[in-house]
Write a structure and sequence with these properties.
CATH topology: Rossmann fold
Shape: globular
CATH superfamily: P-loop containing nucleotide triphosphate hydrolases
Structural class: alpha/beta
Helix content: 25-40%
CATH architecture: 3-Layer(aba) Sandwich
Number of domains: 1
Strand content: 25-35%
Largest sheet: 6 strands, mixed
Bound molecules: adenosine-5'-triphosphate, magnesium ion
CATH class: Alpha Beta
Length: 226
């Protein structure tokens, strides 16, 4: 079986917080959207950071496209991450000296495959076509979030990790952005892990994991007919 992402018995702790993840395992096929639900402090952002190789788990293993991150050299991991993984952080970091269009195009330039056409297409899809020349400081919170989403998608990542990408959006925009994630995942066969507090949006994903106190309480397949 070919998986875009596989996680085996992941455990993590911080000295000040103790055990934050207590044995998380799951696997995602290409094109599968997984929603992660759970109360504040349950370990969702920590899980996403580990999945992206930004932090090393205390024990357990993570595989991107069936290839383990375990023991990978930092340079090799960074190169793979830039090419294969798109990130939307909970606190969306845009570069303030670059315009919206430049922010979105940047990851494709870092991968030496500049793709301003895709950047423009994505900015249209998230409804920012009129703001492409704007600087981030002039954007609203929701506009920044949509810009961060377009930026995460510009390299056509095979794995997208999104931490509450609809947190600052109104209902209509949240639904639109979530639908775009699901559509692109299915179309481009990207696996998506999306953290959300919104049950109704989560139900649009293919699968749902509920985290509680660092443990997976439940994995649901939303497409299974009851
Ligand atoms: N870098 C860190 N150092 C120490 N403790 C941390 C660190 N990052 C997270 N924690 C702790 O780990 C636990 C899980 O945090 P995490 O950010 O993963 O939660 P979350 O589920 O994303 O919450 P929220 O819904 O509020 O974003 C919390 O108790 C938090 O205080
Ligand atoms: Mg979080």
């Amino acid at each position: 079986m070919s998986f875009a992402l596989e996680v085996r018995d992941l455990r993590h702790s911080f000295p000040s917080a103790g055990e934050v993840l207590r044995g998380v395992s799951f696997a995602l096929e290409p094109g599968c959207v997984l929603a992660v639900l759970g109360p504040s402090g349950s370990g969702k952002s920590t899980l996403l950071h580990l999945l992206g190789g930004l932090e090393t788990p205390k024990t357990g293993e993570i595989l991107w496209a069936n290839k383990s991150l375990h023991g990978a050299k930092q340079d090799a991991l960074s190169a793979r991450r830039a090419k294969e993984v798109g990130f939307i952080f909970q606190h969306h970091y845009l570069l303030e000296d670059l315009t919206v269009q430049e922010n979105v195009t940047l990851p494709s330039m870092i991968c030496q495959n500049p793709n301003p056409t895709r950047a423009t297409m994505l900015l249209e899809r998230v409804g920012l076509q009129d703001r492409i020349g704007a600087y981030p400081r002039t954007l609203s919170g929701g506009e920044r979030q949509r810009c961060a989403l377009a930026r995460a998608l510009v390299t056509k990542p095979s794995l997208l990790l999104a931490d509450e990408p609809t947190g600052s959006l109104d209902r209509a925009n949240a639904e639109r952005v979530f639908a775009l994630l699901v559509e692109l995942a299915h179309l481009e066969q990207a696996a998506v892990v999306v953290v959300t507090h919104d049950e109704s949006l989560a139900s649009k994903a293919d699968r749902i994991i509920r985290l509680e106190d660092g443990e997976v309480q439940q994995i649901e397949d939303t497409k299974v007919q009851g």
